[in-house]
Design goal:
Blueprint: H1 3-10, H2 15-32, H3 41-131
Helix pairs in contact: 1-2
């Protein structure tokens, strides 16, 4: 039951006064109604505290996430270092293997050239012997 109706009921012995009072109260209630939705300082303080708490929770969550990402970065760095060392060892092995093969090919070429020189010398000596 609205306040205007209550006033009207209370003053209904004087119909004119009751009607005027109920209209005034009804008008006041209609003007006060939008003010009920207005936030008070207390409402703002409660909202502020709730937001501060939520911000702190988000901050803590972010710090945990950042720490987790840092750990993952360190782990990846370690893995990269291991791969780098492994690749360096493989490169060194390939280099040594190639160096040995180059030396073997070089020795083989020297043997062939020396053999060809001996054969060529023999051919030249044979030609000279035949010409005499």
């Amino acid at each position: 039951m609205s306040l205007a109706v209550k006033v009207y009921e209370a003053f209904k012995d004087d119909e004119k006064k009751a009607k005027v009072l109920s209209e005034v109260i009804d008008e006041l209630e209609s003007r006060i109604a939008p003010l009920r939705d207005v936030a008070t300082k207390g409402d703002l303080e409660v909202t502020k505290l709730a937001l501060q708490k939520e911000i702190e929770q988000v901050r803590l969550s972010l710090q945990k996430e950042i720490e987790q990402v840092r750990k993952e970065i360190e782990q990846v760095r370690g893995e990269v270092t291991q791969v780098k060392l492994s690749l360096q060892k493989e490169i060194e092995q390939v280099r040594l293997s190639l160096q040995k093969e180059i030396e073997q090919v070089k020795a083989s070429i020297i043997k062939w050239v020396a053999g060809l020189l001996v054969v060529q010398t023999g051919v030249i000596v044979s030609v000279i012997a035949l010409l005499r």
